[in-house]
Amino acid sequence: MDTTISAIPRKPKDGQIMIEVKHLYKSFGKIHVLQDFNLTLHRQENLVVLGKSGSGKSVLIKCIIGLLKPDKGSIIVLGESVPDLNEEKLDQVRMKIGFLFQGNALYDSMTVRENLEFPLRRHTVNYSQDQINELVAEALENVGLPHTTEMMPSELSGGMLKRVALARTLILKPEIILYDEPTTGLDPVTAREIDKLIVALQKKYHTASIIITHDMHCVKNTADRVALLLNGRCYTEGTYKELENAEDPKIKQFFE
Ligand SMILES: Nc1ncnc2c1ncn2[C@@H]1O[C@H](COP(=O)(O)OP(=O)(O)OP(=O)(O)O)[C@@H](O)[C@H]1O
Question: What is the pTM of this model?
Answer without folding.
Answer: 0.89
